[in-house]
Amino acid sequence: MIGRQSPPARRTRRKPPVPAEIEIARIRLMVAGSLAIAGFLLVATRLTIVTVLPTTEATRTLHPTKPNTYSVSRANILDRNGLLLATNLKTFSLYANPNMIQHPKSTAEKIVAILPDLRIETVERQLGEKRSFVWIKRGLTPEQKFKLNKLGNPALDFKTEEKRFYPAGRVTGHVVGFTNIDNRGRSGFERKFDRELTTTSTPYSLSIDLRVQYIISQALRDALKNFKAIGATGIVMDANNGQVIAMVSLPDFNPNDLSSTNDKTRFNQATHGVYEMGSTFKIFTTAMALESKKISIQDGYDASQPIRFGRFVIRDYRAKNRWLSLPEILIHSSNIGSAKMALDVGRHKQRDFLERLGLLEKPTLELEEEEIGSPITPNPWRDVNAMTIGYGHGIAVSPIQITSAVAAVINGGIFYGPTLLLNRSNLGGRRVVSEKTSDQIRRLLRVVVTNGSGRKADAANYLVGGKTGTAEKVEGRGYKRKAVRSSFVGAFPMNKPRYVVFAMIDEPIGNKDTLGYATGGWVAAPLVGRVISRIAPLLGVKPINHENPKVQNQMAISVVTKKLRKKHFASF
Amino acid sequence: MAVVAGVGLFTLKYDVSESEEWLATLRLETNAHNQEIHVLKAEWAYLNRPDRLDELGGRLLVLEPPLATQTIAIDDIPFRPQPNLGLNPGNTVPPAADRDPPPKLTSLRVP
């Protein structure tokens, strides 16, 4: 204001002259203000872009993560009713850093006090090593882990791992199989479906019924003990779709404790072992004969003389020494009659027939190739082979094969390959014998149980039918007379078969209860009878009143006892 | 406006991160529970294994496996005779011609 004059009136009208400093300050303020506004505008624009406008690269959408299911690295295995057969559990594994341990001896003592199955010397040696990592023990329980943690030793630590657990233990050992310490399937279903089990988390349902599996394994265990046998195997199969309901092989192993396994216990006799089955094969010879229409149920063969064929002699066990009709051949289990019958049909037809029954090639089953045995068949197939095969010698098949073949001839004539899966996709059967032949075989097998060698299998009111087999064991080039495999293959209820039951005892020794006999009729048949009477209610098979005229009509069969003279009927 | 937008955004952001934290906790808990359920299921299966049930049943129960001879089909149970109302003297329900004769009950044990 210095040196400027302005009248007050004009001062009010005109702005006073602005000093340069203030002008500069104003400009600075303007610049700063507009910069700030520009900044805010930038933020606002950005905000609008980010929040209002749809997706840009800056926006982040929250993807809802998958619903939380507790997932393990290997799917569960269930039985047909949803009972748990195999599952993964988290376990803890103890490791140590020996470099951090000052007193290996006292530390080892403390560890062994908690884990008594370890040896103190071993642990001490491990802890004394010049290393920074050593496994002490894998697969600890939470309780053991807690106790070890309480030791407060910083050199000890844990790693969480998964361990396969089999709640049913040895009962399902051979079917389900087991995994190794790294959770890879090493036998049974676990091995065959190793990839599938590790890639999905949906559980697999087997066709096995744990209750039936237990009942038959228990029955076989008793037989093993009572007859001082060296092995036993049993199968229960659904006759109308090939599903394996139970499959047991003894001696067995505990899949939760791999130290209990060895080659002998791991061997699955039901699928891996192939055996000469003996008389149970007569079922197929008879079915083949009836199917060929060369022989009717009234016909028969002279079984009064043993057959001599080169150096072979075919004899009957407890020979009747007379003409036998076709039902009688089964009832008395005549080798001579069956051999003649097989020869009558012819070796080519026999081979074709057995091939259709799946007895000449490896069965398909959800097990690794190595655990399924290949049948041993004669080559070339001569007449003498035809005769011996007629009564089940000179051909070796696995129990699973004979079970599905029997299912086929009695279920109306449709063969289904055996399966361990509850929901098999390709459930196609093929016809092997006619309805009529199948019906006749059902009647014949029933009469074997009511009046023949299989009497002891007759579980009350379940209309059991079946055939016994007693095969001498091959030793070197000949047969061991005293060592036999006794078997029984049966089905129930025979008017409309639902299940086939097979049992085989390896080298049974007769006892007081069996009057010293160790044949299929004395050893295996009663076992199957007991098993059937226990599993039938569980499987929902209704008791059948065999005095019912309708049922009697379904099971009636006329057994000719003398050649060409029909008045000697014995109706059963 | 900028201030309102900013405040709104920050509130939202904190809300979201808080919810996310809560969700993570819940997930952890669910996971832990699922794991416990898994272990319990395995234990349940182990405790219900057939050999143990068989042993316990034999020791603690007086029941035995049922036999076919102890059961009877529903069709085999005869109807109760109708009361005689005097309209049809002596008339009771005649046994149906196609009805199966009842099976023989060989033993009926009552524990």
Characterize the structure shown.
In chain A, β10 and β11 form a beta hairpin. In chain A, α11 packs parallel to α13 (335-345) and α11 packs across α17. Chain A is elongated, with a radius of gyration of 40 Å. Residues 565-572 of chain A have low confidence and may be disordered. Helix content of chain A is 36%, strand content 19%. Chain A is an alpha+beta fold and 572 residues long. Chain A has 2 domains: 77-99 and 106-118 and 133-205, Penicillin-binding protein 2a (Domain 2) (Alpha-Beta Complex); 213-571, 3-Layer(aba) Sandwich (Beta-lactamase). Chain B has a domain at 2-61. Chain B contains 2 helices and no strands. Chain B has helices at residues 2-47, 50-60. The N and C termini of chain B lie far apart (87 Å).
Q: Do you know the CATH architecture of the largest domain in chain A?
A: 3-Layer(aba) Sandwich
Main β sheet profile of chain B: none
Give start-end ranges of low-pLDDT stretches of chain A.
565-572
Strand content of chain B: under 5%
Radius of gyration of chain A, in Å, reads: 40 Å
Number of strands of chain B: 0
Per DSSP E runs of 2 or more residues, the count of β-strands of chain A stands at 20
Class from helix and strand fractions of chain A: alpha+beta
Tell me, briefly, the overall form of chain A: elongated
Largest sheet of chain A: 5 strands, mixed
Distance between the termini of chain A: 144 Å
Count, helices of chain A: 19
